[in-house]
Amino acid sequence: MSFAGWLTELWDRLPRPLDPFASFKVKTGLLVGGAILLASFTFWIGASWQFRYALLAALATSLILTQFLAHGMTSPLRQMTAAARAMARGDYSLRVRATSRDEIGQLATAFNQMATDLEAADEYRRGLIGNVSHELRTPITALQAVLENVVDGVVEPDAATMRMALSQTERLGELVTNLLDLSRIEGGAIPLQISRFDVGEFLHDAVEHVSVSASDIPVVIRVSPPDLKAVADPARLRQVVVNLVDNAIRHSSPGDRVTVLATSQVSGLRLEVADQGPGIAPAERERVFQRFTRGATSDGGTGLGLAIARWAVELHGGVIEVMDTGMGCRIRVGIPEMTTGEASA
């Protein structure tokens, strides 16, 4: 470090005597008043001296004291300037020393919070790009390999090969759909389109959409009472059911079954989706609802389904949670009672 840099660092470490005062105006008044008082006092002492020497001493002393006290007032502004320039280069690690309680101290505190938020947003953006790139690369690479083998004559374009290619395109389609839903989440809340519907018909329609590609895993639907009606946003609630059932099927083995239970509660509608798979460890039950989170076993999912389900439930003001069961996984959803004229934003 050069002498100038060392001197600057030492200067920045000097105490700030005016920090305890909460108003910048008070600080300015103290600076001006102190300079005047010091000049007057020095002039009074120097009355017995020659006039020119007393005046020069008063001015020099006032300037030195003013510079010392004003340093603590302007230092946060210089630090904010340096931090802002660093942010422009992509470095969000710099923080402003905020020890004052005045307006500049409040500005420094707000600046530090902004820097923290921007750093978190940048980390999330980088992680999102990395996760999306990885998720896209896997099915695209597999699909490319299948098509190259067909073109090169390594394999015949029979039904099995086409099914393999179709499964990869379906995975790509699922990922694109989930990413579109994720962009809606990032874009802010979406108004709910509330309507009254038959729960049994709704569940059968939603489950049929999932079961087409997983016919070997039976899905049992139980509705109590059988004529149960619900008031909610069918499109958003469909996202919940489809993602929960799809997640349950992915973690099921041949011979297992998935159960979807809908009941009427005093507080509103309760939905439960249970499977006979390995279950979710207690330490992971909160984390599974985060974006791009997978369990210990690879299930071929995108890691977005449960995050989207939680988003749709919370749009209704409801709660989604993993229940403690002895075997398998049971996820419970509670949707509060709503009216057809109600919309949540």
Automatic annotation (TrEMBL):
The chain crosses the membrane at residues 28-47, 53-70. It catalyses: ATP + protein L-histidine = ADP + protein N-phospho-L-histidine. Its main location: membrane. SMART domains: HAMP, HATPase_c, HisKA. Residues 71-123 form the HAMP domain. Its EC number is 2.7.13.3. Residues 131-339 form the Histidine kinase domain. Keywords: Kinase, Membrane, Phosphoprotein, Transferase, Transmembrane, Transmembrane helix, Two-component regulatory system. The keyword Phosphoprotein applies. Pfam families: HAMP, HATPase_c, HisKA. It is found in: Cell membrane. GO terms for cellular component: plasma membrane. One of its GO terms (molecular function) is phosphorelay sensor kinase activity. This is histidine kinase. It comes from Mycolicibacterium neworleansense.
